Amino acid sequence: MNTRTLSPTRLVLALLTAGLLGGAGATYMAGGLARAEAPVSATVAGSTAQPLILQGTPDFSKITDRYGPAVVNISVSGVRHTSAEGEEAAAARGLPPGIDPDDPFFEFFRRFQGQGGGRPERSQPVRGQGSGFVVSADGLILTNAHVVRDASEVIVKLTDRREFKARVLGSDPKTDVAVLKIDAKDLPTVPLGSARDLKVGEWVLAIGSPFGFENSVSAGVVSAKGRSLPDDSFVPFIQTDVAVNPGNSGGPLFNSRGEVVGINSQIYSQSGGYQGLSFAIPIELATQVKDQIVATGKASHARLGVSVQEVNQTLADSFQLDKPEGALVSSVEAGGPADKAGLKPGDVIRLANGQRIVASGDLPALIGQSAPGSQMTLEVWRQGQTETLTAKLGDASDKKAQVAQAPDGVGQGKLGLALRPLQPQEKRGAGVSSGLVVEDVGGPAALAGVQPGDLLMAVNGTPVQSVDQVRAAVAKSAKSVALLIRRAGDIIFVPVRLG
Q1: Mean pLDDT, to the nearest integer, of 232-257?
Q2: Active-site residue flag, 480
Q3: Which of 100, 103, 172, 176 is catalytic?
Q4: Are 302-404 and 417-497 equal in CATH topology?
């Protein structure tokens, strides 16, 4: 139950968590007219609910009346441990005393200004709320993983005011999906639809408990689909402008036919509250995770063993790509699945199992939804040519693929780097066999974000060991170059426009 801040834009990627100490939830605001939709039916294992067939514009009141009773309020309680070190860290950051930065509730209290305890080395109870929805009449409930994170007790409250103590069958932080079970029968359920069939601009409806206001309703439209967020997530989010606030976490997102197409999960915000950017987990992915949890108690995801970054126009020019698309490999884990498949830094992955990779985040989302041990065919762009590689995916519980964030730098004139070869002891210390140290930087390279002390490892995907090699590579580049930079253990391609 926390919130996250995105750097460098300083926008808060607010997980829609339980509310403030002592209670919370979230609301949605009703939206306007909608276009007519053709009747669609959905068959969901374990669910007896049928989709509501509407003619003309959708009547959100009918959807709310029929399926609102299947939306539940979730109250959680847990224990927060404080320490002397946490006291000092909290004081240094202007936080209430007794909040340990390593505590799972640290960011939660930092964002929502909860009240901490007094003395170090003690435990304090914390409380919060979220939302969920019933997917089977015998008490199976879907919600967000962050809603029940580290909770020692979970209470589910129905719209008829009955309350049940819930068991957490399993929780998957990588997709932010959790499955709860309550001992009840003949519960109202929701029908599950298809996020794939959603269209941008289509009306959607949300029901949840913002700030503890149970069964609040809001509506809006689908703003975008397949949105990748910089949080190491495997989720291709549905972006909407539906009003979502802390406490809406885990609540359902309905289409205009009354089918659940997503689980409300995150918001972008500078204030911690709704500012027009809400994100939901596609229901197909949530159902896939749910089925794994019900069967085994956990969810598994594959990994490739690479760090990738976005391809902008400058990088596309550097690698002679026809358009700025794909996932640029900035580093490959030694001995990992990608390494064994022959992937190299500088490769641009354009297709994975036949699916087009447009944004770099498309790749982790696709891999994360695959099973460990499965085969993935990759079409990569390497040194001006297309190659096909096959990788046997590993298990994400070991390590995870990362999406690197590259600075967007442009400039004019020469490269502007003063370089020197690595000394043998520096190579051993850095664990590399080649590279050049950036002694000084100016011009386009400085504007692109290169700094003194950086290690230049490759130019346009070609490893470099001498200044002459760098000069030769730059001389071949008309518009821009891509510099593979290592800094403080991180490896990333930095695009530099030459003029």
Answers
A1: 89
A2: no
A3: 176
A4: yes
